[in-house]
Amino acid sequence: MSVSRPAVFLDRDGVINENQDGDYVRGWEGFRFLPGAVAAIAALHRAGYPVVVVTNQAGIARGRLSAAALDEIHAQMIATIRAGGGDVAAVLHCPHHPQDGCDCRKPQPGMLRRAAAQLDLDLSRSVLVGDHLTDLQAALAAGCRGILVLTGRGRSVCDEVALHPDLATVVVVKDLPAAVDAIVASAGR
Ligand SMILES: [Mg+2]
Ligand SMILES: [Zn+2]
User: Quick one: CATH architecture of 8-187?
Assistant: First the structure.
């Protein structure tokens, strides 16, 4: 009988890598790690957290991005993270259109629940780092804590988060390295 572990869920665009203005990252050449992101993921790995990437990629449903191109981006992303001393336990993506009514597109918690079932994760002790309201809503719907970073779209949604009483527990930090510092520090208390 294994004991469920806490995980750190990371949104991808705007948290790990730069958002592409008004477009999807459609190939590895368009993928730019944000400053300190690779080192921050390595620190999570050293602290013993499985890192799970959960990303909405409606570009697939819209025909703007192929599933093969997305797989290639993620393979390269994971290789770079591993070369930097980190690891990624899983990458889950939602390929659906916002109108599809799927259970995985954030703010729905489907990807988090699926990862929890696959990897035996304890959602109540897990945290999600995101740059958008929908990330935080998915986190809370799954019973996780939420951290908002001010990279990506974070700065523009920060005020909005403050207006949502249900998001009162959300912690706001500068970027992924700061989020990781906060996660590791709170685990040590
Ligand atoms: Mg994002
Ligand atoms: Zn979906």
Answer: 3-Layer(aba) Sandwich (3.40)
- Could you give the maximum distance between any two Cα atoms of the chain, in Å? 47
User: How far apart are the CA of 14 and the centre of ligand 1, in A?
Assistant: 5
Residue ranges covered by each domain of the chain: 8-187
Residue 9 near residue 128, CB atoms below 8 Å: yes
Q: Which ligand is nearest to the CA of 133?
A: 1
pTM over 0.70: yes
Helix 133-141 vs helix 110-119: crossing angle, to nearest 10: 50
CA distance 59 to 139: 22
Query: 1 C-alpha to center of ligand 1: Å?
Result: 35
Residues with a known catalytic role: 11, 13
Ligand closest to the CA atom of residue 114: 2
- Residue 90 Cα, ligand 2 centroid: separation in angstroms? 16
pLDDT at residue 21 in the model: 78
Q: Which pLDDT tens digit goes with each residue over 32-65?
A: 999 999 999 999 999 999 999 999 999 999 999 9
Closest ligand (CA of 94): 2
pLDDT at 80: 98
Cα 184 to averaged position of ligand 2 atoms, centre (Å)? 30
Q: What does each C-alpha distance from 99 to 9, 61, 64, 78 come to in angstroms? A: 24, 10, 16, 30
Tell me the residues surrounding ligand 1 (ion) with CB < 5 Å: 11, 13-14, 131
